[in-house]
Amino acid sequence: MDRAIVFFDIDGTLLDHNKQLPSSTKHAIQALKKEGHEVAIATGRAPFLFENLREELEIDSFVSFNGQYVVLGGEVIYKNPLNTKALDSLTKFANKYNHPLVYMGHEIMKANSQYHPHIDISIGTLGVSHPGYDPHYFIDREIFQALLFCPDEEEAQYRDGLKDLHFIRWHQFSMDVLPLGGSKAQGIEKAIEKLGYTKEQVYAFGDYLNDIEMLQFVGNGVAMGNAPDLVKNVAKYVTKDVSDNGIAHGLKLVGLLR
């Protein structure tokens, strides 16, 4: 088979429901490399939130911030920060509704609220503590993604009122905020252009709403068995649950492993 590149989401894809890396997944990725294929990560997380995973899997290429910061072989090849004016408008809009924000740079993140339960509940699911307080952190810095903390029943006002931003829900109390048009697909496109892969040589595994564009874009999109139907319906393949050897099964399903 031709050499392929495979992009893996992290939460619910590489990591199971307990944020653990299944041994079958680790072994499958090692086998994938031995077969001569390239392995990369495509995640909504910031680079500093998955350093340990990259080290464990020996992966030095990734699409982070849902496509806004792309690294190949340890080298940054694409950056698409949020516009400062757009962030200022978002901040003022969110302040009216007492909805806090976290501003994410490539090295650290800061919140514009000293404490809010929705921050701790949401990012706590990623194994992350409160990021610290700096309401002006977005000024004169490259911010690649913001986290907006609001319940899903209140999100429509942001989509209607801030047309130059892209909102993707990832938690009951939180949404990722990206530049308009931003997605994992955008970041993967930049990566494969640089590496010279065709879409047919590109595989991607994902499980949630921020994976939809990615699964539609690549030649071979694989939805995890734990993904909602909305995600499964756009994928070319559907594998087993992440906790049921979903990655290993999926790589065999698409013919990359025997």
Describe this protein's structure.
The strands form 2 sheets. An 8-stranded mixed beta sheet has the order 5-4-3-2-1-11-12-13, with helices on both faces. A 5-stranded antiparallel beta sheet has the order 7-6-8-10-9, sandwiched between helices. The protein is α/β, with parallel strands linked by helices and 258 residues long. The chain folds into 2 domains: 147 residues, HAD superfamily/HAD-like (Rossmann fold, 3-Layer(aba) Sandwich), CATH 3.40.50.1000; 96 residues, Hypothetical Protein, Haloacid Dehalogenase-like Hydrolase, Chain: A, domain 2. It has 9 helices and 13 strands. The chain is globular, with a radius of gyration of 18 Å. Strand 2, helix 2 and strand 3 form a beta-alpha-beta unit.
Please provide a brief summary of the model.
With 258 residues, the protein is an alpha/beta fold. It has helices at 23-34, 51-57, 84-96, 117-124, 156-161, 184-195, 212-217, 229-232, 246-253; strands at 5-8, 38-42, 62-64, 69-72, 75-79, 101-104, 109-111, 145-149, 165-171, 174-179, 202-206, 220-223, 237-238. The mean pLDDT is 96.
Within the CATH hierarchy, at the fold level, what is the topology of the largest domain?
A: Rossmann fold
Q: Specify the structural class.
A: alpha/beta
- Count of discrete domains: 2
Compressed to H and E, one letter per element, the order equals EHEHEEEHEEHEHEEHEHEHEH
According to DSSP, the number of beta strands is 13
Largest sheet: 8 strands, mixed
Low-confidence residue ranges: none
Rg measurement, Å: 18 Å
Shape, principal axes of CA atoms: globular
Round the mean pLDDT to the nearest integer and report it. Answer: 96
Total of DSSP H or I helical runs spanning 4+ residues: 9
Classify the beta-strand content into a percent band: 15-25%
CATH superfamily of the largest domain: HAD superfamily/HAD-like
User: Span from first to last CA?
Assistant: 12 Å
Please give the CATH class of the largest domain.
Answer: Alpha Beta
Spatial strand arrangement across the major sheet? 5-4-3-2-1-11-12-13
User: What helical percentage do the residues reach?
Assistant: 25-40%
CATH architecture of the largest domain: 3-Layer(aba) Sandwich
